[in-house]
Design goal:
Number of helices: 14
Mean pLDDT: 80
CATH superfamily of the domain at 102-335: MetI-like
Order of helices and strands: HHHHHHHHHHHHHH
CATH class of the domain at 102-335: Mainly Alpha
Low-confidence stretches: none
Number of strands: 0
Shape: globular
């Protein structure tokens, strides 16, 4: 089988598996929500409401139906792209909630991913290029510590130091409440302010984005540091690198032009897994920094036992992770000619 046909077969097989992956996520989310203790009727009406009122609300919400029937009714609504209606947001559609809060999460994710890639690749490259030195040891410690630190603890510590003590960064929100937000184009304040030609709004939005992005990005950068360090060390021992040294090519040029380029191939694969970690870490980061994103809204919905909102947001996140995983797999297969299907 030729490489082009093999690649086409691989792409088709990955696309066919995507609905099954998403259905698995939907099923797990649905069952776990029903298995957790608590009653949405209590969350909406309060614990002191009459039992008759609670029962009437359960009938209206369909919570009195058998679990299997609730499941198939929910699948039917999903097929028509109806994520349901929030129980606690005055009848607001879950799709509208996602559209309202998701841009803030995207902006945080983009900033965090940029920080994690730059820091992880830089530290990993320095560590691998100087084996056995204090820089190598420092790089290894950096990867272990950043990977192991609890997200919420690091966020609160950085807030205490840089927001409370030094007052370098604000400790909450995307934008000052007393200033007009950038005119909505994409929903991303940094990009919208640039598109509107307002440099002051861009700097203000970037100032608010900096600390949460640095917190989440640095803690995730340990993943890239470890991968780059291990693969770059192996690449620097390869025959073609030794041949380049024998031709008199400088060590820096060998590192940048030959070894690092090949060592970064596994990073593409890890991007998909890191993206899933990014969404999980975004919940703790958004709650810690009072960042008005979709992950923070999910946290509120879980606390309120808002089944439709929790299900809708988790299914939406699941669809993003599945899509990102497919794109990363295809990109990795296209970039790396050593892969066979």
């Amino acid at each position: 089988m030729s490489r082009s046909k093999a690649l086409q077969y691989y792409i088709v097989s990955r696309l066919l598996l995507a609905p099954l992956q998403l259905l698995t996520i939907i099923t797990i989310v649905f069952l776990l929500l029903r298995a957790t203790p608590g009653d949405p009727a209590d969350a909406i009406l309060g614990g002191r409401a009459p039992e008759s009122a609670k029962e009437e609300l359960r009938k209206q919400l369909g919570l009195n139906l058998p679990i299997w029937l609730q499941y198939f009714l929910y699948l039917g609504r999903l097929l028509s792209l109806d994520l349901g209606t929030s129980l606690t947001s005055r009848g607001q559609k879950v799709g509208e909630i996602i559209g309202q809060y998701f841009p803030a999460t995207v902006e945080l994710a983009m900033g965090s991913m940029l920080v994690s890639l730059v820091v992880g690749i830089l530290v990993g490259t320095i560590s691998a290029s100087r084996p056995g030195t204090p820089l190598d040891l420092g790089g290894r410690l950096f990867g272990i510590i950043t990977y192991a630190l609890p997200m919420f603890w690091a966020g609160m510590l950085l807030q205490l130091v840089f927001s409370v003590q030094l007052r370098w960064f604000p400790n909450s929100n995307r934008f000052p409440p007393n200033l007009p937000i950038p005119k909505n184009i994409t929903g991303l304040y940094t990009i919208d302010s640039l598109l509107n030609g307002n440099l002051q709004q861009f700097l203000t939005a970037l100032h608010h984005l900096a600390l949460p992005s640095l917190t989440l990005g640095i803690l995730l950068s340990g993943i890239f540091e470890r991968i780059v360090r291990v693969n770059l060390k192996q690449t620097l021992k390869a025959d073609y690198v030794e041949a380049a040294r024998a031709r008199g090519i400088s060590e820096n040029k060998i590192l940048v032009s030959h070894a690092l380029k090949n060592a970064l191939i596994p990073v593409i694969t890890v991007l998909g897994l890191t993206f899933a970690s990014l969404l999980g870490g975004a919940i703790l980061t958004e709650v810690t920094f009072s960042w008005p994103g979709l992950a923070n809204r999910l946290y509120q919905a879980i606390a309120d036992r808002d089944y439709p909102t929790v299900q809708g947001i988790l299914v939406f996140f699941g669809a993003i992770v599945v899509t990102a995983s497919i794109l990363i797999d295809i990109l990795n297969a296209y970039v790396d000619p050593r892969i066979r299907y």
